[in-house]
Amino acid sequence: MARPARAPLLRRLLLLAALAASCSYYLLALQAQASAPPRYDGFAYGGGAAAAWKDAVLVEAFLDPLCPDSRDAWQPLKLAVERYAPRVSLIVHPFPLPYHTYAFHACRALYIANKLNSSSTYPLLELFFKNQEKFYNSATSSLSSPAVAVEMSKMASKAVGNSASEFLSGFSDSRTDSAARVSFKYGCTRGVFGAPFFFVNGFLQPGGGSPIDYNTWISILNPLVSQQGERIEMFTSM
């Protein structure tokens, strides 16, 4: 699949600098306000297998549903997590990049799907990755925001199982807007300024903004899982 034309390097650098500055601002503002959302941000992957975070290696991924690099990062991450489950848990935090015009719509769509049918959240994310070109800036330049929401709802209804009109009504729900905003602000508090970004047990992994391949994930996770097994054995033998 051909990638969209890349913006000139200077423009992209300026946008990244602006995003980093806004993240710094949000970090200071949020710390000052000290207001926490009612639930931890993001979507746990793997159902019950992801519940006991304290007993597993926790991977957190900040992904933009309309970002080609996030798309390329997803499959190797998914395979690595599934290889080690339930000893590895995954949470994906939606992080809409400002230079993808309708990335915020896509992140809202994930929250709408999660509300209507929580098991459809990741299938919808994968649908966005598969059909990104339909929502690239060039493809939507002549469409209005409501028109894009309609197109996303038509696509999302295939994953969620509800009608497109029922899904579309979620874009009128202020709670999905608030949830997507919290996701972006939360990313900013973690120093995220691009996608994909990855944290393992709270520690930022190098190469933020670029995919991590499967073999690299194995090299990251395997030693941690091995140490975890040794720790569990030590405690059970006491």
UniProtKB/TrEMBL annotation:
Family matches, as Pfam families: Thioredoxin_4 (PF13462)
Recorded superkingdom: Eukaryota
Positions of the Thioredoxin-like fold domain: 57-202
Extent of the signal sequence: 1-29
Keyword vocabulary terms for this entry: Signal
Protein name: Thioredoxin-like fold domain-containing protein
Protein source organism: Digitaria exilis
